Amino acid sequence: MTSCSNLAKTSGVLGAVIVCLTFSSIASATNGLFGHAYGVRQAGIAGSGVAFPQDPLIAAINPSGVAYVGRRNEIGVALFSPMRSYEVTGVSPPPPNGFPPFAGPKVDSDSEFFVVPDLGFAWPIDDQSSFGLAIYGNGGMNTDWPAADTPFGAGTFGAAAVPGATIDAGVDYAQLFTNFTYARKFADGRASWGVSALINYSRIEMKGLAAFAPFSLDPARLTDQGHDSAFGFGAKIGIQGDIANGVTLAASYQSKIKNEFDDYAGLFPNGGELDIPPVLQAGVAADVGPGKLTFDVQYIFYEDSDGIGNTSLILPTQCVPSRPFTPNPVASGDGCLGGKLGFGWEDMTVFKAGYTWKAGNGWTWRVGGSIGDNPVKEEEVTLNIIAPGVIEDHITFGFSKALSGKKEFSLAFMYAPENCVAGPDLFTPGKQVELCMDQYQLNAGFSF
């Protein structure tokens, strides 16, 4: 694959950003499968600011804010570092008598650093309306569990027992969004509405799951199929308005977006569906002291996506596994992989707060934090080894420095403290599976 640095030299900065957005592993998941923020300014206030438009990437959380951005261009990049691990404890007979994942030392995921670009543009049409274009990674997940680090070298889910199978387990899942926004002011400019047309490109690769073939309705399309891609389409609507001097309320809603990965129809339900769930965000921005205080509530409807929200607990009880040379040579039942089974995520509520203030001499400072309940239930941890989205809290800060003309340089830093979730193994209740994750992210942006 052509590197992003080579593309920047040969194709120009803008073209390189677009191509890298399309082909990079966009592993920016911090609130389950969603990023905690979009763009450097949102990142400095923990993804709050649905009622506080600062740049064109406001379209990612509230399209109505584009009406107040003016003419502005933004190019940014984030260096994202998620640290993931799992550990299995308890009694675990060795293969072939035991069933993976086997008890043993903690296993750490490889692939700990990712580069995630974003860009946004806003163009006023007239005094009341504006058009915006934003391109960003919505989220996703990436894990890489080396088989060499697992007990007996069996692989996380025992794929070493299957001749010719990939034994390193993991997922490479990325979502890219292109957001076209129209926003318009009303009520003498004190309020606005906006609507975004969303074009989504997603791609996914699953590996190391071959030992689950007897539990799949379509074992030929279960795992190790390389990257498969899907296009989806959706919409986002938003509104904001001043309710008092220096106080603004806002809300937005993004529709569910259908994604179907045919190459993994033996893993995800309904022929390979892994839909991006709807999301609702509402908040307030208020002048407090020398700056702006923002407070948002975000609600992610994970249970509306069968592939994410359906339980995995039905696998041992509602799937009749295949048994060659018997009356049931093919797996059957809604509880099988490729049937109704999902990863068992719950809906997620996230509370976000931030404070932005100007300090003179062209400096703007930001701090923020967010709190949420991770969507992975304790009893669903086993299959979620593949994608342990268990982060709950974020701490952020950042700044901008005005340069000549309308140019501005910004930085933001995010730290997500380690959170762990432990529960019984799906196949051997005497074992315990613990998933852990902590994260760091550094954003940089340049506006002009």
Overall number of structural domains = 1
CATH topology: Porin
The fourth-level CATH homologous superfamily is Outer membrane protein transport protein (OMPP1/FadL/TodX)
What is the name of the CATH class? Mainly Beta
Q: What is the correct CATH architecture?
A: Beta Barrel
Oligomer: single chain
The percent of residues in helical segments reads under 10%
User: What best-fitting shape do the alpha-carbon axes yield?
Assistant: elongated
Order of helices and strands: HHHEEEEEEEEHEEHHEEEEE
Low-confidence stretches: 1-17, 19-25
Look at the helices and sheets and give the structural class.
mainly beta
Strand arrangement in the largest pleated sheet: 1-3-4-5-6-7-8-9-10-11-12-13-14-15
The total count of strands amounts to 15
Rg of Cα set: 23 Å
Short description:
8% of the residues lie in helices and 43% in strands.
Task: Supply database-style keywords.
mainly beta, Porin, disordered N terminus
Describe the structure.
With 448 residues, this protein is mainly beta. It has one domain (17-447): Outer membrane protein transport protein (OMPP1/FadL/TodX) (Porin, Beta Barrel), CATH 2.40.160. The chain has 6 helices and 15 strands. Strands 1-3-4-5-6-7-8-9-10-11-12-13-14-15 form a 14-stranded antiparallel β-barrel. Strand 9 and strand 10 form a beta hairpin. Helix 1 packs antiparallel against helix 2. The relative contact order is 0.17.
